[in-house]
């Protein structure tokens, strides 16, 4: 059962608007693959092309070794779990799960056996005769999964199915989805704007923005070595400092950060950076730690503006003294206890980081994600590293 | 309800509104109907016999239908033909309602609805006459069919039930399209997509998902169409032939040609009772309640 999916130079246009730029991508059979991106980035369009609800303007979709060009929705080896689940409210749980089998002409007894087995898989034994309206949110979720699995799809498509659930249930369902995927060996293609979901469940994640795939990688690579500024800002939290390259030695890059002095970070081997080029330095809040007078390495002096106690860690909102830029710092439990006396608004602290943890990417002037509003901001509105003006 | 009205309009105005409503219901609806019921149970007497020994309540007028075979046949034929008209109207309206609700763009739907409504600005009699012309033996429809080579000689559309059927489907189509359209419109698109995704073809998607959802709307449309068809007078009178007489025409004859209001009232009530009985049977069969229809 080959559940691999291949997008072969697919393009999707609606009139003048290009929803998906030319995209080629291969998803392995049995993989848990996620598309992660903000709303409107085209991830749902991609999902609809795989399911057959949309036909790509150009290019082809393959499932296994079959081109899907002429295969209509109801004949594709895919099943979809909809964002609002789209359970049939006038049917019982049994009837919902068995619908796909009924369509295929499976006899009643075999159908019932199959749906009992699926109900056991999603831990809903005995709920078969219930009406959909009698179920809780989490139970509906499970019925939707069972209904989709009933048709024995080679590829299961999930369109943000957890977004309607509350936090605890969502976290629980993440683990459960992953377990079901492992048990069934079906290819899962998961759409989400929630990076937590994408990172915890997926084997690989494609980060999307504005109709383009920015990076395809396993979650750890995505987090540690983002390929573009968008990925660096969208996946996890990142402080972004604008700099110019002084000199590059292998992966290590020395940077001129204007008033902040000289800083350093790592650039991937494939990243092209010449001396004097504009570059963005990404520092994750958890990689910054308080340092003393004698410590070597990069130094960033800042004033604390807010302290958020999150339980396992403390998040500091600070402002860099030299440049006036914001810097978010996350201190682990131990460190925050050690510095408990100085964690107050208005206090000055000096932070350092290991340059091996800092990512340097070329600053091509493309829009960047504003951490505060969650929106993309154009270059003109941004602070310039040498100008010192702030939007 | 009284409290709501009082809160909104104040005591005197609320009383006035309720009073007017009461006058309308009692004086203009209930009393005339009671009068007709009273008529239907009394024999048709000359003015000077009224109040005399022969004037009393009797079932005679109702028995007439049982004893008159021709009237009985027309009575049941009217019911049966109304069922046919209802089914035909549904067959035409359902695809149209589906198109309007789920396929057409908002602009197309608006245009289509406008085109459906405009003919209804014209009087029913005039519209029916238009069909009379279209369906005539030497009319445009026969001409076109012959030109296309589909028939060799003209068809007498107006001599059987065909003309009446066509005229009625046309006359009552809006009463079917709108309730069905409203019902289909409220269906979540993802329901249809989910059914397709699970492998269902067009027919099964409609049979298992769309029609069950639209059932209250379909029932409403069917009840309205059936009631209107069974009570129709103009269409069978104009487009029908002696072979396709409607029961309403017989009621009309009792009132205005036979001059026997008592007999006419009895026939009218028989039609009403039978229609209501028939509709409640249909509603029970489709498991649709009055509440569903009120939606």
Brief characterization of the structure:
The complex is a heterodimer of chains A (391) and B (295). Chain A has 9 helices and 22 strands.
Low-confidence stretches of chain B: none
**β content of chain B, as a range?**
under 5%
Look at the structure and give the mean pLDDT of chain B: 85
CATH domain fold name of the largest domain in chain B: MetI-like fold
Percent helix of chain B, as a range, is over 70%
In CATH, what is the class of the largest domain in chain B?
Mainly Alpha
Order of helices and strands of chain B: HHHHHHHHHHHHHH
Mean pLDDT of chain A: 86
- Supply the number of structural domains of chain B: 2
Oligomeric state:
heterodimer
Describe the global form of chain A.
globular
Report the CATH topology name of the largest domain in chain A. Rossmann fold
**Largest interface, with Cβ-Cβ < 8 Å?**
A-B, 22 and 17 residues
The secondary structure category of chain A is alpha+beta
| CA-atom Rg of chain A in angstroms | 25 Å
Roughly how many Å is the radius of gyration of chain B? Answer: 24 Å
Main pleated-sheet profile of chain B: none
**CATH superfamily annotation of the largest domain in chain B:** MetI-like
Write up this protein:
- The complex is a heterodimer of chains A (391) and B (295).
- With 391 residues, chain A is an alpha+beta fold.
- Chain A has 2 domains: 5-224, 3-Layer(aba) Sandwich (Rossmann fold); 229-381, OB fold (Dihydrolipoamide Acetyltransferase, E2P) (Beta Barrel), CATH 2.40.50.
- Chain A has helices spanning 43-51, 93-103, 108-121, 137-150, 167-184, 195-201, 219-224, 229-234, 333-338, and strands at residues 5-14, 17-27, 32-36, 58-63, 66-67, 78-81, 155-159, 187-192, 204-209, 212-217, 239-249, 252-256, 262-266, 278-283, 289-290, 300-309, 313-320, 326-332, 348-352, 359-362, 368-369, 376-377.
- In chain A, the strands form 5 sheets. A 6-stranded mixed sheet of chain A has the order 6-7-8-3-9-10, sandwiched between helices.
- In chain A, helix 2 (93-103) packs across helix 3 (108-121), helix 2 runs parallel beside helix 4 and helix 3 crosses helix 4.
- The longest helix of chain A has 18 residues, at 167-184.
- The radius of gyration of chain A is 25 Å and the shape is globular.
- Chain B folds into 2 domains: 1-39; 60-294, MetI-like (MetI-like fold), CATH 1.10.3720.
- Chain B has 14 helices and no strands.
- In chain B, 29% of the residues are buried.
- Classes of the chains: A alpha+beta (391), B mainly alpha (295).
- At the A-B interface, strand 6 and helix 2 of A face helix 9 and helix 10 of B.
